[in-house]
Amino acid sequence: MIAYRRLLLATIAMTFCLIVLGAYVRLSDAGLGCPDWPGCYGQVSVIHASEHISAAQEANPHGPVTFAKAWKEMIHRYFAGVVGLCIVGIAVLAWRHRQERGSSPLLATLLVGVLVVQALFGKWTVTMLLKPAIVTGHLLGGLTVLSLLVWLYARTQRPWRQAVSPGLKLAAAAAFLVLGMQVTLGGWVSTNYAALACTDLPTCHGEWVPDMDVRNGFHVVRELGMSPEGDTLDMTALTAIHWMHRVGAVITLLVLGSFAVALIRAGQAGAGGMLLLLLGTQIALGAANVLLSLPLPLAAAHNGGAAALVVMMVLINYKARTSAQPRLAGVFHESTAA
């Protein structure tokens, strides 16, 4: 089981880095650096595909294909392949140690299935030319893989010794749901390139409620930058996407912040404090991206912040779910009323 836990930890770290790397590839417009999948012009590396890339650059000097973008895209794919092999190894070890405490072969097998779906989304991201729904699904798939890995690792650890009330367990699940919705909104902002649709804070275009086209902005089945009818997506639609993410950020701050305070009052100061730290950092990164016009390192870090919050909330939910039942049913209410 030592090898199993170590492999889980290493794969969690690599998956986290892969999510940030994927954001970097997307934000640097390298998502179509190699216009086919899984290779690059049918080749295993950019070096082998150099003739095709040179021809593409000559045909369209301002197009999506350059050597730099191709390398970014292929490095991301190589990294994803390594993570995939590690996940298969986790499943093998989980079945080998299925009689031991903390092993979960069925969940590990489910993770392999999710990995296959995630690989398909990676393929469709390229072959369907960065459709927002597909790219957002790819991002959420990566976070799902990360969440399952963290859950598997948490199963190998001891639960909280201190009892957690049913109310706090319910609050943990609700807070995770709110975070998931906000992460989805953030993915929709990123995949529609709407991060700079509003460049002022706290207002948007100088207004608290700007002119917005919610219908086209949140229409799922459409091409990148286009309305469902095939027209160019205008600024009002991008503004709607950005503004809704801001509203979601306020709601997430209130919900997760209140939950973190409840954790601290319930005797889980470490988890509550870390959650507050991650939440504050993520809000600060979001504001900095707007005020500084989306510098690439900060934009990638904002994606990493979202992944870190997901990891933290998965751990908290697992610990809360597996902790001992309190002797008195009103522990959560008493702790929040203190």
What attributes does this structure have?
disordered C terminus; 11 helices; mainly alpha; 338 residues; 68% helix; 2 domains
Q: Give the tally of β-strands.
A: 0
Major sheet characteristics:
none
Percent helix: 55-70%
Number of helices in the DSSP assignment: 11
Shape, please? flat
The SSE order reads HHHHHHHHHHH
- Number of domain units: 2
Quickly give the structural class: mainly alpha
**For the residues shown, what is the average pLDDT?**
94
Uncertain residue segments: 328-338
Cα gyration radius (Å): 22 Å
Distance between the termini: 42 Å
Strand content: under 5%
Short characterization:
The protein has helices at residues 2-27, 50-59, 67-96, 105-127, 132-155, 166-191, 214-217, 235-265, 269-291, 296-322, 331-337. With 338 residues, the protein is mainly α. It has 2 domains: 1-157, no CATH class; 161-338, no CATH class.
